[in-house]
């Protein structure tokens, strides 16, 4: 029995690719799926796209030529999604596994141990196989909305973390006036007075009279 289990091929399909591909199938059902198609609709590298193709054949969503099957058509429909998942479980997984770890939600760690022990794979591969087994075994189409919300929350959390890590911009503060100090006042200056004096001397005035006029000006104006 152990040798028979080891010879079986169990698929693994990342949940993100699973739901993204289903959304794409719901928009337009492709006649044929190849690596180029998966690269485009899932935004993945060529190597990852090529690795997904044999998983889809094992699941029964495409045939050997890449043409989509009736199972894929049922899988994309909300009303028949659960039925399609049951068909996948019956097609792919052994009775020993489904009896030991039955639906709808077997323990993740126990499932990992089963794949690791039975298939002789490492922890990383056992985790992938167990996660996909539990995804298909659930058969719950609402998991698609749950997956989308979780990814949106994760993206929002990463965005906030990025903003938080950015250095805060320095802000220039206006200098605060010193307490108890007032600006120095300029000394007040007395207003200046400027007087223009015009003296009209008659043309027939004598020199003595002119001297008398200027002496009076010196006495009464300039002296003071």
What does this structure look like?
- The protein is an all-alpha fold.
- The protein has one domain (2-160).
- It is built from eleven helices and no strands.
- The protein has helices at 2-7, 15-27, 35-42, 46-59, 70-76, 81-92, 95-100, 108-119, 123-138, 143-165, 207-222.
- The radius of gyration is 48 Å and the shape is rod-shaped.
- It starts with a helix and ends with a helix.
- The model has no long low-confidence stretch (mean pLDDT 82).
In helices, the fraction of residues equals 55-70%
Profile the largest sheet. none
Assign an overall shape: rod-shaped
In angstroms, what separates the terminal alpha carbons? 135 Å
Number of helices: 11
Going by helix content, strand content and strand pairing, the class is mainly alpha
What is the alpha-carbon Rg in Å? Answer: 48 Å
Number of strands: 0
Uncertain stretches of 5 or more adjacent residues: none
Q: Any idea how many domains?
A: 1
What fraction of residues sit in β-strands? under 5%
Give the integer mean of the pLDDT values.
Answer: 82
Secondary-structure element series = HHHHHHHHHHH
Output the keywords:
224 residues, 11 helices, mainly alpha
């Amino acid at each position: 029995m152990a040798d028979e289990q080891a010879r079986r091929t169990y698929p693994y399909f990342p949940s993100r690719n699973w739901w993204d591909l289903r959304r794409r199938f719901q928009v337009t059902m492709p006649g044929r799926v190849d690596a180029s198609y998966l690269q485009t609709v899932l935004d993945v590298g060529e190597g990852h796209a090529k690795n997904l193709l044999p998983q889809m054949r094992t699941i029964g969503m495409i045939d050997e030529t890449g043409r989509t099957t009736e199972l894929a058509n049922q899988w994309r429909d909300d009303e028949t999604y659960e039925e399609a998942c049951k068909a996948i479980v019956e097609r792919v997984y052994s009775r020993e596994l489904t009896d030991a770890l039955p639906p709808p939600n077997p323990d993740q760690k126990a499932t990992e141990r089963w794949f690791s022990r039975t298939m002789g794979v490492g922890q990383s591969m056992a985790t992938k196989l167990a996660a996909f087994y539990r995804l298909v075994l659930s058969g719950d189409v609402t998991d698609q909305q749950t997956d989308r919300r979780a990814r949106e929350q994760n993206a929002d959390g990463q965005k906030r973390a990025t903003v938080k890590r950015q250095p805060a911009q320095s802000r220039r503060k206006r200098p605060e006036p010193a307490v108890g100090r007032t600006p120095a006042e300029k000394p007040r200056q007395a207003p200046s007075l400027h007087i223009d004096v015009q003296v009209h001397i008659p043309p027939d005035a004598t020199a003595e009279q002119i001297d008398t006029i200027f002496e009076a000006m010196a006495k009464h104006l300039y002296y003071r």
